[in-house]
Design brief:
The protein has 217 residues and is mainly beta. It has two domains: 102 residues, Immunoglobulins (Immunoglobulin-like, Sandwich); 97 residues, Immunoglobulins (Immunoglobulin-like, Sandwich). Helices cover 3% and strands 48% of the residues. It is built from one helix and 17 strands. The strands form four sheets. Strands 1, 3, 4, 8, 9 and 10 form a six-stranded mixed beta sheet that branches. A hairpin with a 5-residue loop joins strand 3 and strand 4. It is elongated, with a radius of gyration of 22 Å. The C terminus is likely disordered. Pfam families: C1-set, V-set. This is Ig-like domain-containing protein. It comes from Acipenser oxyrinchus oxyrinchus.
Length: 217
């Protein structure tokens, strides 16, 4: 079970909770993992009741409430990922809750890309619906959702299936999908945007009726 998302900036320390619901005895072994892109698991630290620090990783045991805390010091962008710990005691393995760490670097300017799937294969005069995709890279989970402007629709449309991905380099990427008519796409004026809630800055990608590509602003 996932317990939450922990946004951070490079150099900070992050403390994540992993409720295990069991008392840790003297022989208990705690193994903490990070899930890398592609689902590959990486063992980052191992603790017991007497050794609770491994490099930048520190464990904290709260037997009274069945909790384990994992603290990572001096986090960097490539530390982003899904973390969870497993307790082994008397031949039994007990998994704790997972937490997602997202380290965003304010020095990196986010990018927003807008494109239509299969636009190169479609012929002129295409009348079927068009899948439009907005790709926001180097965003933050603290930002607002991806919003769309579509010609002929006065109200803000509901976003389609939004997906979140942490890349191999730790970049937090959000992909938003909507399906619109070919006429709306080709007429221009379609845009997608996302707002940094901390600064109020808005990042936008817009398509005009003369361009198939992407405009960032």
């Amino acid at each position: 079970m996932q317990s939450g998302c922990h946004p951070a900036r490079p150099g900070e320390s992050v403390r994540m909770q992993s409720g295990i619901g069991t008392v840790l005895g003297e022989s208990s072994l705690i193994s903490c993992y990070r899930e890398r892109p592609g689902g590959v698991l990486e063992l980052v630290a191992q603790f017991n009741r007497y050794v609770l620090k491994t490099g930048r990783y520190t464990g904290e045991i709260d037997n009274a409430h069945g909790n384990l805390f994992l603290t990572i010091g001096n986090v960097q962008r490539n530390d982003s990922g899904l973390y969870f710990c497993i307790v082994r005691a008397s031949g039994t393995f007990t998994p704790g809750r997972s937490s997602r760490l997202v380290v965003t670097d304010p020095k990196i300017t986010p990018s927003v890309q807008l494109f239509s799937l299969g636009s190169d294969e479609r012929e002129s005069g295409w009348t079927e619906s068009v899948p439009a995709v907005c790709l926001v890279r180097d965003a933050s989970p603290l930002w607002g959702r991806v919003l769309w402007t579509i010609p002929g629709i006065s109200a803000e449309p509901e976003p389609g299936s939004d997906e979140v991905l942490i890349g191999p380099d730790g970049a937090y990427t959000v992909t938003s999908h909507v399906t619109i008519s070919a006429e709306q796409w080709e007429s221009g004026g379609v845009d997608c945007r996302v707002q940094n809630n901390a600064t109020g800055e808005i990042f936008t990608a817009r398509k005009t009726n003369t361009q198939k590509g992407i405009i960032n602003s």
